Amino acid sequence: MAEPYLKMVSVKKGFPGVQALKGVDFEAYAGEALALIGANGAGKSTLMNVLGGILRPDEGEIQIEGRAVTITTPLDASMHGIAFVHQEMAMLPTLSIADTMFVANFPTRAGVIDYKTTRERCIQALKRLGCNFDPATRIRDLSPGDQQMVEIARALLSDPRIIIFDEPTSSLTSREKVRLFEVIQSLKKQGVTVIYITHLMDEVFNICERAQVLRNGETVGGGLIKDLTYEDIVRLMIGTKEINRYFEHHTSTIGEPVLKVEGLSRKGVLDNISFELRKGEVVGLWGLLGSGRTEIARAVVGLDPIDGGTIQVRANGGLKTINPGEAKNWVGMVTENRREEGLLLPMSVKHNLSLANLRALADRLYPFINFKLETAQSKKYVERLGIKISSLEQKVANLSGGNQQKVVVGRWLQRNPIIFFMDEPTRGLDVGAKADIRAIIGELAAEGAALMVISSDIDEIMSLGDRYLVMHRGRLVKELGAGASKEELMAAAAGV
Ligand SMILES: Nc1ncnc2c1ncn2[C@@H]1O[C@H](COP(=O)(O)OP(=O)(O)OP(=O)(O)O)[C@@H](O)[C@H]1O
Ligand SMILES: [Mg+2]
Q: Does residue 284 contact residue 469 with C-beta atoms inside 8 Å?
């Protein structure tokens, strides 16, 4: 086999309270896609941030084509042909697509920005990904998936020799994913080194030739994908044999309706939606991206205005009609969009966990908060969810992506609502953590909560639901019982 194009040798990186990388060796070859795999907090993003010049390692060396290189800034990385598609996008919402893509290196003519060339190169780069956006469009007017495509197009602009994808598909539609995978195939043919971080094993088996698995800042194994099974990888990642709980189904007794929605409408988005959720049941809401599945949850919780319809919740032994604004007293919502709706990044884990729950944490002397109780409660949920932190005072911004998502879930658990909407609750979580969240969903149902779970992962929905509702273009088109098949769900969502 040829020499590796890229080598990282004995890389160490510590943060206050955690040794994120404990001397990691990493090799990648030209023309291959290497899967970098590991549980939440294993050190994947940290290792790639070192390669991308975003973090300085405490020790270690980077070699490209056998020669040691110094990378201390993202610009250094870019000069060595390294491009990075980040896990969490950090684009300015008010900038145009063209400005976002060229912010660091506008094409110039005689020292003046050449807008015509900028525009053309922008259109070309986007076309390569099958996107026909107008370069003048503002970032904030794009869907998260389209924003991600802009981020990918930006990375491709510099004709990189090494490209890092850190969970690139979490907000893409299936069509966008197909397009991305085609682009990755063609990059490989051109000899580009692709480093691919994901928690989705089907992507690993589809796209990658080789894998390296990290656990707690150390390499625990890897090899050629063709020699590895799904179980091998999961076992390496989480270091246990408890893979079976991945598909265990909860059991609970289903009782009276606790939420009744009738004729919920919002022009162009939701068309006359009616459904019930009963005590102790988990209803899987399935539909394609953009079918209105998130919008149902947002409308019920009062985050989006509605044009018509009624919402009733269980209160004092009967059903009581509520105004959208009151819903938050009964309904909890775990969102997929932890950046925008979920978390206060500069604040501590402890405060984020108690955020949804300030009233319960107040003493009789409300509004004064019982800080001891706040600490005790937060500790309890950190343990229950297995959130990996160095202390309760750690800023949420410094947690790994998956652990941030667990904080969002923990926050709502504390509040103990009788109805839950969970929109992609396990997005970005490793397989072990996904199983933890699913177990918690089962426990909540067994304790008598009613839950509606939205997920793009059909296996996840199938493993959770007592019943399924299917959306198509803003309408609820089908209700299916527990025995439904994947094919039935998919067909209904496609409008068949
Ligand atoms: N800026 C920081 N300050 C303090 N700790 C940090 C910082 N960045 C990362 N960490 C810690 O380093 C460890 C590794 O985090 P990293 O983000 O590399 O994990 P990851 O493998 O990418 O996980 P995920 O799959 O959840 O994204 C975690 O314990 C994390 O909390
Ligand atoms: Mg990460």
A: yes
Which CATH superfamily hosts domain 247-493? Answer: P-loop containing nucleotide triphosphate hydrolases (3.40.50.300)
Q: How far apart are the first and last CA of the chain?
A: 50
Q: Which atom of ligand 1 is nearest to the CA of 39?
A: 25
Protein residues near ligand 2, an ion, with CB under 5 A: 45, 87, 401
Model pLDDT for residues 418-440, shown as the tens digit of each residue:
999 999 888 878 888 888 888 88
Q: Which of 463, 446, 23, 126 is nearest to 284 (CA)?
A: 463
Determine the topology of domain 6-243 in CATH: Rossmann fold (3.40.50)
DSSP letter assigned to residue 341 = I
- Give the residue ranges of the chain where pLDDT is below 50: 246-247
Atom 8 of ligand 1, nearest CA residue:
398
Lookup result for tokens 């040794």: 19
Instruction: Give the residue from 309, 283, 300 showing the smallest Cα distance to 445.
Output: 283
Q: What is the pLDDT of residues 5-32, one digit of tens each?
A: 999 999 999 998 889 999 999 999 999 9
Would you kindly state where each structural domain of the chain is located, as residue ranges?
A: 6-243, 247-493
Single pTM value for the model: 0.77
